[in-house]
Amino acid sequence: MTLTRSTSTLSIALYQPDIPQNTGTILRLAACLGMKVHIIEPTGFILSDKGLQRAGMDYLERASMVRHRSWEVFENWRLEEKKRLILATTKSDHSYLAHDFLENDIMLFGRESSGVPDEVHIKADCNITIPMVEGLRSINLACSVAMVAGEALRQIKP
Known about the structure:
The protein contains 5 helices and 6 strands; from the N terminus they run βαβαβαββαβα.
């Protein structure tokens, strides 16, 4: 199956990402899967950063990205658009594999260094997690996005 640019209304949102290489990898993934990426600023790097360019390669010009100046701007936009917010977090017992994704969902991923603050947690419609071996802290952000996005697409694009 071949997709064209932004063929899904299922989206990825990154809350104040810290690492340009992860963001570039996620933009590349999203471009290949036809998904939009929402970047909630401020970021921990300049969006034209060389690491972002290196990880995203020539896919960045094919990526569909929307920048939001702040969490408040993003949240106001999301509520106007009536999109469900699905937060991927280590502070949940609900596996992403047991979650029922919908076409209009936005999958939100927090900062690599600190996740999302409590005021963002409480705004999420659902919290999901990737089950991990006990005692380990987290999975790389780009890998986490790929896992959750893959499952969401599997469910909505049979």
